[in-house]
Amino acid sequence: MNQGQTKRYRQAEQLIKQEKWGPAGDILDALVEETADPAATRQLVRVLYKDHQYVQALSNVLDEPTLFYQDESSASLAVKILVQNQRFMLARLFVANAPKEWQTDLVKMIQTGEQAAQTKYHQTIQQRLKTFYHLGDGSLMEQRQRLEEAYALPLESFILGTRFVLRDPFVHYLIKADIIESLRKLKVDTQLDYLWIDNQEYQVNPAKLPAQNDVSAVKAVRQIIKDQLGDQDAINFQMANQQFDLQLMFLFPRATNVITDPTEWADFLLATLNGHEINDDTAVGRWQRRLMTLISTLAQAGK
Fold first, then answer.
1. Assigned CATH class of 3-113
2. Is the pLDDT at 302 greater than 60, yes or no?
């Protein structure tokens, strides 16, 4: 902030001390628009919360949640706002990325909010759960919207809905993968059945899943791509990694079961990108052709 903006920021701080939330918020809102200053954004959210403008405060938190990892007080404020707006799963995911020493107290805040909501907003939660059950009744875009709405559910209700959604053949697999990944981040220790891209059912315990990029086979493929293209062809290097990222979206959480030979996998991927005709009558070839079809279908759905 320049000198004039700093002066206005101090004026806002004086108004906050006087609990004049409206005038303080007006100044801070303008400063955020002008400067995108993190401190001004956090102060604006505090003022909006104090002024009971919870929806607007939520919008600012969701725009840049990482700004609220600055200190425990800011993280606590973000959680209060998420809970106030009944965004319980989003609150838990926010806390999962916070420093570990803060997490216990922050999770307790969420649990208290969930318990209160189960009593006060029981019918609303039940309706959201019913909508979650019918996630598969729509396009991929509509399913993403319904999943976003489901993140307002308390964790217990979300898991209940998940048990049905993960086995629903009409739910797009990328939606299922998003759900499993969210539960992995939350270290949810429970066994879940899911219908995978090969139309077979498998079981997974999210708490025991590694992050996809920590899987040894995944790291090996990335290293091969880097060794072959990293210093020689920046464009193809980027394209290869993007294609591999798309493959991993569909392979999650079974990449290890499919990529049994990282060298063969990387060679096939790179040859395909270069337009080379190669024998695809192998396990790797058949898998990559299947993934290419899924990725192509995904691209068409986005048009």
1. mainly alpha
2. no
